[in-house]
Amino acid sequence: MTFRELGLVEPILRALEDKNYTEPTPIQAQAIPLVLDRRDVLGSAQTGTGKTAAFAIPIIQLIHKIEGDSDRKPTLRALIVTPTRELAIQIEENIDDYSKYTNIKQAVIFGGVKQGRQVETIRRGINILVATPGRLLDLHSQGLVDLSQIKLFVLDEADRMLDMGFINDIKKLLKILPTKRQSLFFSATMPDNIVTLSDKILIDPARIEVAPVSSAAETVQQFVYYTNRDSKKDLLNHILKNPDIDQVLLFSRTKHGADRITRNLKKVNIKSAAIHGDKAQNQRQRALQEFKDGRVRVLVATDIAARGIDIDKLKYVINYDVPNEPETYVHRIGRSGRAGEEGIAISICEPEENAYVKDVEKLIKQKLKIVNDSPYPQTDKPMTAAEKKEWNKEKQRRKQEFFANRKKNGGGGRGGYRR
Ligand code: AMP
């Protein structure tokens, strides 16, 4: 399935290409045609599944069709309500990316900051508004936002919204919104009170469901090596001495990290390739092909780049770091053990990441198996808050130094700064 097959218009396809999205995630493949078909949608899906694009992309397309390339002042036609400021900002940024080759204008509003700049953006004219409930009602009651032309309404993370006590705000909002509209309702869980709320909002909705991210964890054997930051490289080489690990997808948090890992593997004659956002599309495709053909043993990927890559029967996943979002961990290991195959996930954990392992264990409701017979056991302690602050400063300094040197030397060149 491609985005083109979903019937998206050229300016959106181009923007998705810039984001290096190669194929729609399951929720996108389901939701996009339904929304374009003007259906109401009830979606059970959580963050990390590609949910934002699943509603944002078709909304952009529907508005783009109405607005075209006209120069008149934009009309506010779509409202997306989400519980937290962070989510709101993230959604707005995504809309900005996906709509960059259209005329669409959007804004984000949330509480806890002065309203002046938010009001100014709305006043200049927008098509899409992303909002947290409190600030939205506040600006509406001041007559600063006109919701009378809303044709599309999204309630995002409905269960969290209720947990955070927003039910009365939502009820108030429903009284203000035009009744003739298309509504999309997303929630990670669907307890009774959420279903009741959705009944009030949706008319004959299409139901879509994507597996909660934690389900991947059940089919994969999961191991963790506790080690020190400086031993990770040697430990990885040690792990890869096992000839059974003939093909492995290795995750790195950062692009620089991914490049550094491939350089280190080269030194010990292990064939690897990195795919991440700084690599051109043809470089990524080549790396992937070489990996599939068995010419590359270790494919090193960042989380974003790994989305949408399709590899059959991958047995091994290595986490070179433990992600601070446990959902990301579950996504990573979900790349192994597909289609009834046995999967093995190995995580390499430095002291700073010990707490992240606990978060993961809480989410997947099981313990990772600790590998004790390691030549590089963890002996360092996690940094104190003060040490961490110092270290972050030092990291920043090294980064600046690295880029300053690179600029001085005419840019380009190999290598990265050490984190
Ligand atoms: P969300 O579930 O909306 O929070 O999305 C999670 C992450 O996946 C975000 O960083 C998106 O940019 C990314 N993403 C969404 N759709 C795709 C796709 N089709 N291909 C690759 N990455 C995607």
Structural write-up:
The chain starts with 9 loop residues before the first helix and ends in an 11-residue tail after the last helix. The chain has helices at 10-18, 26-36, 51-67, 85-98, 116-124, 133-141, 158-163, 167-176, 192-201, 232-239, 255-267, 281-292, 303-306, 326-333, 354-364, 385-408; strands spanning 41-44, 78-81, 106-109, 128-131, 152-155, 182-187, 206-209, 220-226, 248-251, 272-275, 298-301, 316-319, 343-349, 369-370. It has two domains: 4-209, P-loop containing nucleotide triphosphate hydrolases (Rossmann fold, 3-Layer(aba) Sandwich); 220-370, P-loop containing nucleotide triphosphate hydrolases (Rossmann fold, 3-Layer(aba) Sandwich), CATH 3.40.50.300. It is an alpha/beta fold. The model is unreliable at 412-419 (pLDDT under 50). The strands form two sheets. It has a seven-stranded parallel β-sheet with strand order 3-4-2-5-6-1-7, with helices on both faces. The longest helix is centred in the C-terminal third of the chain and has 24 residues, at 385-408. Adenosine monophosphate (AMP) binds at residues 21, 24-25, 28, 47-53, 304, 307-308.
